[in-house]
Amino acid sequence: MKQHDAVIQALEQLGGQSTLADLYVETMKIKDCEWRTKTPFASIRRIVQTRPEIFRIRPGLWALRSYQKKLGLVEADKGDDIPEATQNSHTYYQGLLVTIGNFRGHLTFVPNQDKNRLFVNKPLAEIRSLQELPTFSYEFIVRKSESVDVIWFNERQMPHSFFEVEHSTDIHNSLIKFADLQDFYSRMVIVADENRLREYEYKLEKTAFKEIKNRVKFLGYNALVKEYEHEVLKAAQPFSL
Hints:
The protein has helices spanning 3-13, 20-28, 40-50, 68-71, 83-103, 124-127, 139-144, 171-180, 197-204, 221-235, and strands spanning 17-19, 54-58, 61-64, 107-109, 118-119, 122-123, 150-153, 159-166, 187-192, 216-220. It is of the alpha+beta class. The strands form 3 sheets. Strands 4-7-8-9-10 form a 5-stranded mixed sheet, with helices on both faces. It has a 3-stranded antiparallel sheet with strand order 1-3-2. A two-stranded antiparallel sheet has the order 5-6.
C-alpha cells in the first residue's frame, strides 16, 4: 500500500476528518504500509498538505474532500463569515483544551450550553470528565464560572485553570470573567489566534485589569495544537518515535 493511501484509509477510519495527532496514531496502525523512514510523521504532514483528496479545516485538523459535503465542513480561511463555521472553530479549541486536561490528570468541564457541540466527531459531553460544575465556592461565585469555556479542576475539585477561547468575540468580556474569579489560586488563559496577541496586550493594560495583569496568559492556536499533539503522541508510546 502506498503511503498516501494509508493516510486516506486512516482518515476514513476516523470518520472522514481528524486531528493530525490522531491521524499519526491511526496511520501507524495500518500494517500494509511500509514507511522506511525515521520520520513517518513528517511524511504524513507532507501528504495531508499536498494530496488533492485532503484539505485543511483549521490548525491541526484535516479532512477528506469526499466527506466535505456529508459533514458540512468548510476549508480553512473560507468560513470566517459563516456563523456555523465560527462556532465549530470555537468548539474545536475547547475540545483540544479538554483533551489536554484529561491527559494531564485534571478533571475537566465545559458549560452545559456547549456540551452537545461536536469536537471533531464527538460531543464535548463525551470528553469532559465532569458532567456538573463542582460547587467549589459560594453559589453566586460558582455561577460566575458557569460560562467559562473550559475549566480544569484538581483532584479536590478546586479550579486549577480557567480558559476562554476568543475566536471572534471580545477579549474584554473574558478578562472581566477572570477579574471576577481572581481570588482563586488558578491559571487564567486567553486562547486565540496569534494575530490577536496585540489586541490582548492592549486590553490587559486597562486599569480595570491591573490586579490580574500578571496572572493572565495568552495561548495561540498553533501553540495549543502542538501541546495537543504532544499529549496524544506521549499517550501512544508504541506509535511515537
